[in-house]
Amino acid sequence: MYPVLFEFGAVQIGTHDFFVGLGVLAAALVFGLETRRRRMTDDRLWAVVAGALVGGALLARLGTWAEHLDLRHNASFVEAWLYGNRSILSGLLGAYVGAVVAKRLVGYRARTGDLFAPAVAIGMAVGRIGCFLTEQPGAATGLPWGIHAPASIPGCPPCVAGAAMHPSFLYEIAFHLAALAALLALRDRIREPGELLKIYLLGYATFRFAVEFVRGNEAVWLGLSRSQWFLVAVAPLLVIHCVRQYRRGVYAGVFVRAGRPATVPA
Length: 266
Hints:
The protein is mainly alpha-helical and 266 residues long. Helix content is 57%, strand content 5%. It has a domain at 113-255. It has helices at residues 15-37, 45-62, 77-83, 88-106, 113-134, 157-161, 168-186, 195-211, 226-247, and strands spanning 4-8, 11-14, 219-221, 224-225.
């Protein structure tokens, strides 16, 4: 793979960091376009964005701290911050919490989920290119589209063995691009503010739980990875919310053809 994308003398630009940064820029562009389209020009929005970025950065790093049920075996918070891995799932949770806290602090009451949903989708799609180019692609597979990676990738037994592996990050890029297209199609069909983000997060939680089986991540209990147990804990909250909203008729516009009146379930 390609851990270093560019070299300028003694300065190296890491592939993963480059695409994460590019994903943030793409997300910012889409967010800005959505604010203009929806005529949401309150300057306090940028405080909400800052809260989301800070919360996401904090929990993305510290969210990998509790790797063992016996807390004595975990690194300290300082060690986790300096040397730990980053978790997309805990980062998304941190971004959500950070945005909520920022809105409370600045007194901004409008829903912002419809702005964040397409921005997060494009940001994730671009950022995952860096993961694909630098990390273990996935579990070993005999399927014809399996890919090979160099044995130099750390902690990758299938790489050392020369086995073909699932291109799991390509699966994820495809999901986020499809999700972006769906969000753009739905943004004028769901009238209640903030619902696009809930739908996107539920879709990603479902996809991520499934794709974990071919990611090659360590199973820690009952055949499930840490990411899957995280989703088992938090995804039911999204399910409850979306079921409740469906029963209220919030999603009625999703299931009718354009131009036809929506009916509210009895």
